[in-house]
Specification:
This is DUF1444 family protein. It comes from Taklimakanibacter albus. By secondary structure, the chain is of the alpha+beta class. The chain has three domains: 76 residues, no CATH class; 69 residues, no CATH class; 92 residues, no CATH class. It is built from seven helices and 13 strands. The strands form three sheets. The protein has a six-stranded antiparallel beta sheet, with helices on one face. Strands 4, 5, 6 and 7 form a four-stranded antiparallel beta sheet that branches. The longest helix has 17 residues. It starts with a helix and ends with a strand.
Length: 253
């Protein structure tokens, strides 16, 4: 099955399994899904199927299970966001989001990764449209401070797997990349590498770390990030960024 055929199958299943939804194919591995009653783009999810198609290519016999699993996530994004309080507000770090809502509040960190406001839920995170953030009644600085406070409270203590020239950091949940927003984590001495800290946010649960003067480490994390891009279900980035003067910057060797 080609990418185009897979896209058509996904779109058909989306309309079958998500009553009231209309799936519009925009190109190979891109489908826009929204309520049939909506004539504009408000509340329309832009779904990119590269990861799903990669999974299918590796195991074609599991196509039904793969598409169903991705549609479960889509259904959660398209249904009305549950009532969340200020205590649920967090920040996640992504290269791009699978469901790109209009008026979603985010800002670039460095390279190709962004910080995005979301609401923490037991099984997933709900990206927070601007109107939902406005309902919290907080200014920009207070909003960010609250999200960072909640993030530290909700996040699992990360595991650090240390190697001679690089380290692998993960927390077993979707918040591993959010460590980029934790200044305390990067200001401690738990990561010892030559030069400035260099990071690749490879996937939801895979943050790769080395030093700007660790040539072998830089090669190792680049290779692992490219492997993750081809294998991980929730791959994010292959672009290294560097921490200098307390902030993340694009990294150029």
């Amino acid at each position: 099955m080609t990418a185009e055929q897979f896209t058509h199958v996904y779109a058909e299943r989306a309309e079958t399994l998500l009553p009231g939804m209309k799936a519009t194919i925009k190109g190979a591995l891109e489908v826009h899904v929204g309520m049939m009653s909506h004539d504009d783009d408000d509340g329309v999810a832009k779904v990119f199927l590269e990861n799903a198609f990669r999974e299918y290519a590796e195991n074609p016999a599991e196509i039904d299970a793969i598409i169903s699993r991705y549609l479960v996530g889509l259904r959660g994004a398209l249904t009305e966001v549950p009532t969340f309080t200020r205590e649920h507000l967090v920040l996640v770090v992504r290269r791009e989001i699978a469901f790109e809502w209009q008026a979603l509040l985010h800002w670039p960190l460095a390279g190709d990764v962004h910080a995005i406001y979301a609401f923490d839920a037991p099984d997933t995170v709900h990206y927070a449209p601007k109107e939902k953030l406005d309902e919290l009644g907080l200014g920009e600085s207070a909003l960010k401070a609250l999200a960072l406070k909640n993030l530290k409270h909700n996040r699992v203590v990360p595991r650090i797997e240390t190697h001679p020239t690089f380290a692998i950091v993960s927390s077993g949940d979707s918040y591993s990349p959010s460590l980029l927003l934790d200044d305390d984590f990067w200001s401690t001495e738990r990561l010892h590498f030559r030069g400035d800290i260099v990071v690749i946010v490879a996937a939801n649960d895979l943050v790769l770390v080395t030093g700007s003067q660790e040539n072998e480490g830089l090669e190792a994390i680049a290779e692992m990030a490219h492997e993750a891009a081809g294998e991980a279900v929730h791959a994010i980035s292959t672009t290294p960024i560097v921490r200098r003067d307390g902030a993340w910057q694009s990294f150029v060797q």
